[in-house]
Amino acid sequence: MYEKFVANVRLRRMTVFLAIAVILFLARSMLTTILLTFIFAFLAVRLLQHVRRHVRIKYPWMLIAPVYLLVIAGIYLVVTHYIPIIVHESHHLINGLINFYNSPQFDSNAAYSFVTNWVDRLGLANQLHNGVNGILATITSIGHVGFAIVVSFILSFFFAIEFDDLKKFGKNFLTSDYGWFFRDFNFFAQKFVNTFGVVLEAQLFIAMVNTAITAITLFFMRMPNLASLTAMVFFFSLVPVAGVIISLIPLSLVAYSVGGIQDVIYILIMIAVIHVLEAYILNPKFMASRTQLPVFFTFVVLILAPEIMGPWGLIVGIPIFTFLLDIFGVKAIPKKHRPLKLKEAKTDDSDHQGDPS
């Protein structure tokens, strides 16, 4: 029975997949640490591989150590100089929006009254309030999040500087007595890196581009509290598709309170330009059109993912769903769009060969 089980690749892979799912479920309290470690390590290894295409680097630490030192210096600069500014501006911005919302000027505007009644009727305010509270609860739990960030940062650093040694060490698992289990685990690991990793990396880059365009536009519009608005747009842009739409609401309120309907029109034009840029240039180039989901599925995933994974679901829900589609053969990611070329290792199972990197 054991030999028949090992020979049945489909049943065996499903068993390994369920085992991985059970392990992750049991370790769900460490989900933040696991995801942050993967993201940091993925970005560090991608940087190392990109530089190695142009410059010969024998030891990874020669590149990774200076980069991590620069990141630490940047974090120190942000925490000591920009975080206090963002907190102060955010407090001022929220108070200004509350005062504007309660002002007669807002009540006398027919368009905003219609939107307010529509939002109240659908109960969107409560849903948005609950979502924001969940995100704020995660962010404000400084001890938990801070510990997760520090641990993830350290783990990703050692993973990156020992990347070559880890690849060599990982090959020993493929030829062990239970090599079939580790080869199937490696199969899912490759799928995960080549779907989850590339989608998340592309979304991060798209968020940076969207934030840069928004910041430049707000600067020329002379909008107040520029730092807090830019930070808000960046975090919302990490949410695929819906993030830019969600950020439109507070941006429009701020624009109307500052310059009236004219500034709101400017904001709408800016959002339209960002959508065109994201849909026709950034997504096809960095996300690959074949990895895109219909908008309906995107919103369904964005609604269900936070219920399953909490606030992380807004950011990683789409990449994980894309990974599952690839696993089940519904929508495979073409190899030409995959960022990591994994060397093949000869094993007994020809359909899931690969380097454990």
UniProtKB/TrEMBL annotation:
BP GO terms, sorted: transmembrane transport
Superkingdom of origin organism: Bacteria
Entry's Gene Ontology cellular component terms: membrane
Membrane-spanning residues: 16-43, 63-83, 135-161, 202-221, 233-258, 264-281, 293-309
InterPro entries membership: AI-2E-like
Principal subcellular localization: membrane
Record has Ribonucleoprotein as a keyword: no
Pfam family, one: AI-2E_transport
Keywords: Membrane, Transmembrane, Transmembrane helix
Keyword Membrane: yes
Membrane topology: Multi-pass membrane protein
Subcellular compartments: Membrane
Family to which the UniProt record says this protein belongs: Belongs to the autoinducer-2 exporter (AI-2E) (TC 2.A.86) family.
Name under which the protein is recorded: Permease
